[in-house]
Amino acid sequence: MKKVEIYDTTLRDGAQGESVAFTLNDKLKIAEKLDEFGIDFVEGGWPGSNPKDITFFSRVKNRKFKNIKIAAFGSTRRKNFSADRDPFLAKLLESGVEYITIFGKSWDLHVNEVLRITPDENLKLIEDSIRFLAKNGRKVFFDAEHFFDGYKRNPAYALKTLAVAEGAGAEKIILCDTNGGSLPFEIEEISKKALSAVNIPMGIHSHNDSGLAVANSVTAVKAGLLHVQGTVNGIGERCGNADLSVIIPILQLKMGYKCVDGKNLVRLTEVSRFIYEIANIVPPGSQPFVGLSAFAHKGGVHVDAVNKNPETYEHISPAEVGNERRILLSELSGKTTILQKAKKYKLDENPEIIKKLLDNVAMLENEGYQFEAAEGSFDIMVRKALGEYKKLFTIEGFRVIVEKRGSRVVSEATVKVRVGRAVEHTASEGNGPVNALDNALRKALVKFYPEIETMKLTDYRVRILRPEEATAAVTRVVIETMDESETWGTIGVSENIIEASWKALIDSIEYKLHKKRGKEVKDNENF
Fold first, then answer.
1. Domain ranges in the chain?
2. Residues 479-522 pLDDT 10s
3. Is the CB of residue 229 less than 8 Å from the CB of residue 174?
């Protein structure tokens, strides 16, 4: 099995994505997570560009990682500095890491119109910078920036930049589709030309501006480039970078390359969702392999087929990447769907329970409920049907006040909760009435159930079901919640948007508490 090196640039290129901002602690936690996963290289940032990256390198300098090698990123020397006097190259050396990635121009358009130097002067920048870093004991990766665009305009010059990098002592050359505009057949053809021009290993760095970063990366590997750069979840500037969460399972499961240890691949979904959490991004359900909907089945025909043989509608087993199959409930649901979705409860086709569930779903859907994105609420319904549900807390009342204080609109919620014989009466503010209710409810319950501290509301969706009734219309609220291990949805329906939200919030917390306790809630009155 051929090895493909995986070079992660989430901490540098990923941080250039719109609304993405990692703290120093975030960067350290991500590096640790990627090390556990088994990535080969992690690009830590550009030392000298900002104080945070300088501190990051000082913190990781003496840290022992099991798998990753930390790389520093920078550019070739500036045109008015010699290599030994360039302050940015000096910062790269001061980072203390063994591997340094520098980018240089391979497209003469940039040489002429951005750097405003001659093509030969640009070659000298590349040569001097790599030679200087290599002479100082560093292993240098050369990012041939805009290589594919450069090759299309002036193939001889683009290839010459590679030859100069090789001659100066680069360990590896990475061909960059920086503008993300190349197509897979172009990537394959040009990569083969580049491979025939130099004798050192080569890699690919693709951007996603044409939606082809994954396809281009996979094609480059097929052409012979055995080093792939990208970011977890494809986060990055403009349309993002090549998504390692998709590339790794394609290469490893479908093409027979080794990217990470086989035992670590099952952690792929966990790593993806961890980085979404750190980046404060709601995970898109449709993301291949790791998305919440990647192995979700809704139509009755699909569900029936998957129940008989998952291969009928799944290209891999979700367990291989740490994801799970989801059976969605909707107006298309039938007996097979209910059975498949509730399989973990071992209903064994109990006709009485199945009928009860089908009747409940039909009745609630008539009221406006829709369970395809509310598995948490469905879980609570099943537990009630099986007698495995216990009311772990009782809401004795709540109140929400919204008022304007000067230039601010403030929401404050008060909640009265009973747990056993204890009564908690708490108040909390929020940036809206639902947020204030959520904060007050958690505040009241956390001392009884500390596990709810790991919960985080990640999405809140409102749908007006009968808009012709205007402000009296029925409202459906779906809340998505995440903890350290999974994401779940809950639902509430009411003519009052606050009550609908409240129902969804209650279900979300109850799902969290019951999934930990399981069947023991039936017999233990202390909860």
1. 5-260
2. 989 887 788 889 999 988 899 999 999 999 999 998 876 544 44
3. yes
How far, in Å, are 441, 474, 475, 493, 495 from residue 499 at the CA level?
14, 11, 9, 8, 8
3-state secondary structure 181-209: CCCHHHHHHHHHHHHHHCCCCEEEEEECC
Q: Pick the closest to residue 257 from 289, 290, 227 (CA basis).
A: 227
CATH of 5-260 given 1.25.40.10, 3.40.1280.10, 3.40.50.1980, 3.20.20.70: 3.20.20.70
- For residue 22, which of 47, 49, 56, 48 has the smallest C-alpha distance? 56
Strands (DSSP E) along 286-437, which ranges? 296-297, 326-327, 394-405, 408-419, 422-430
Grouping H, G, I as helix, E, B as strand and the rest as coil, residue 456 is strand
Task: Render the burial of 360-396: b for 16+ CB within 10 Å, e for the rest.
Answer: bbeebbeebbbbbbbbbbbbbbbbebbebbbebbeee
At 129, list the tokens: 């910078």
pLDDT band at 457 (very low <50, low <70, confident <90, very high): confident
